[in-house]
Amino acid sequence: MEIGVVGVGGGGCALADALVAADADHDPGFLVSAVAVDTDAAALEELARVDEDDRHLLGAVHTDGRGTEGDAALAAEIAREERPELQAAVDSLPVGSIDATLVCAALGGGTGSGVAPAVVDVLGQVTATPVYAVGLLPGVAEAGGDADAADAVADGPKRTDAATDPRGPDRPLASNAAGAVRALSAGADDLVLADPDVWRASGASYGAAWSRVDAALTGRLGRAFAAGEATDPVPERVLDASELTNTFGAGGVSVVGSASTGVENGRRDGVVGGLLDRFAGGAGPDVDEGEAVSVATNTARKAVTHRLSLPCDVESASRAAVVFHAPPAWLSRRGLERARSLIEAETGVPEIRWGDHPDPTAEAFRVTVLLTGVDDSDRLAELGGAVDPTRLD
């Protein structure tokens, strides 16, 4: 699946920047174009991968280029007043030649929660392909103006629209996120959510967790989107763009999970060994069938039970897609079938869509799981009654 990406606000732009970097690790890639939109000029300048011509500052009259300081109402007002500027910002996306667009935002902050729904709406007017939102929830114990700011700046592009801004008092993180989840659930074709508490070490600051959140999301989404583009070696089964689109079309919210098990790939060490593998080819390791099945099933079980991007009841999902990424010798048909059956049993989702991505250079057997139509999550319930994951309003 070939996608375009729009990052909105500090957290969303940082995630878009990370997706551009992740795309460089895939051959062929999955990302066609990336755009960044923010009310903080300094945060835009700190982006490393999004092209400078594709970085757009909004609301300079209202904020003097310093961001909305957690004020979602101000951000929404800016989005209404500067809709032509939003339109111009997304015009660089080649909407006629991509399969979908991702709108990424940190939902606890002002710009992300206030502007991202407007971006989704603008894209909905100009493209016939799906528009998916990727939302980063605020942490359960996260508060503005604390020491997390220093960690966030040290870890990468600033997330000054989120709780790490030291310039003001505590932000209304939960209410911002609740309103954004409701708006994005209604406006986007699907909403993928991530909770930083999944990756935050006990007692550690939230700033230190954000880079891990970005790495996890870009890795998981990147493997899902890139799976259908793989051509050499030829996959046993391709998870193509239409199957991903059908998986995403379940409504509610979506989560992504992943797990890996280290395996031997039979590649030779050193520069000379690498050249021999490249030009002469490598036979790959001699893998016992029983071990291949065991690795596949154990890794699949972990993928749906550990570190989902949003803690939830996996049995509440209505659709699922799975990607198996590993050296070819480890992609046993029996192992993949058993792993798929295990995920069906864990989730209760029938006829799971799946594909494999044989990669001779991989050093692990990795399973990536996309669960969509999720409607039972204690984490969402904690945000309050404004959240409507099933779009009943």
Automatic annotation (TrEMBL):
<dbReference type="Pfam" id="PF21011">
    <property type="entry name" value="CetZ_C"/>
</dbReference>
<feature type="binding site">
    <location>
        <position position="142"/>
    </location>
    <ligand>
        <name>GTP</name>
    </ligand>
</feature>
<feature type="compositionally biased region" description="Basic and acidic residues">
    <location>
        <begin position="156"/>
        <end position="170"/>
    </location>
</feature>
<dbReference type="GO" id="GO:0005737">
    <property type="term" value="C:cytoplasm"/>
</dbReference>
<feature type="domain" description="Tubulin/FtsZ GTPase">
    <location>
        <begin position="2"/>
        <end position="138"/>
    </location>
</feature>
<keyword id="KW-0133">Cell shape</keyword>
<feature type="domain" description="Tubulin-like CetZ C-terminal">
    <location>
        <begin position="204"/>
        <end position="383"/>
    </location>
</feature>
<dbReference type="InterPro" id="IPR037103">
    <property type="entry name" value="Tubulin/FtsZ-like_C"/>
</dbReference>
<dbReference type="InterPro" id="IPR017975">
    <property type="entry name" value="Tubulin_CS"/>
</dbReference>
<keyword id="KW-0342">GTP-binding</keyword>
<dbReference type="InterPro" id="IPR032907">
    <property type="entry name" value="CetZ"/>
</dbReference>
<dbReference type="Pfam" id="PF00091">
    <property type="entry name" value="Tubulin"/>
</dbReference>
<dbReference type="InterPro" id="IPR036525">
    <property type="entry name" value="Tubulin/FtsZ_GTPase_sf"/>
</dbReference>
<dbReference type="InterPro" id="IPR048737">
    <property type="entry name" value="CetZ_C"/>
</dbReference>
<feature type="region of interest" description="Disordered">
    <location>
        <begin position="148"/>
        <end position="174"/>
    </location>
</feature>
<dbReference type="InterPro" id="IPR045061">
    <property type="entry name" value="FtsZ/CetZ"/>
</dbReference>
<protein>
    <recommendedName>
        <fullName>Tubulin-like protein CetZ</fullName>
    </recommendedName>
</protein>
<comment type="function">
    <text>Involved in cell shape control.</text>
</comment>
<keyword id="KW-0963">Cytoplasm</keyword>
<keyword id="KW-0547">Nucleotide-binding</keyword>
<feature type="binding site">
    <location>
        <begin position="110"/>
        <end position="112"/>
    </location>
    <ligand>
        <name>GTP</name>
    </ligand>
</feature>
<comment type="similarity">
    <text>Belongs to the CetZ family.</text>
</comment>
<dbReference type="InterPro" id="IPR003008">
    <property type="entry name" value="Tubulin_FtsZ_GTPase"/>
</dbReference>
<dbReference type="GO" id="GO:0005525">
    <property type="term" value="F:GTP binding"/>
</dbReference>
<dbReference type="GO" id="GO:0008360">
    <property type="term" value="P:regulation of cell shape"/>
</dbReference>
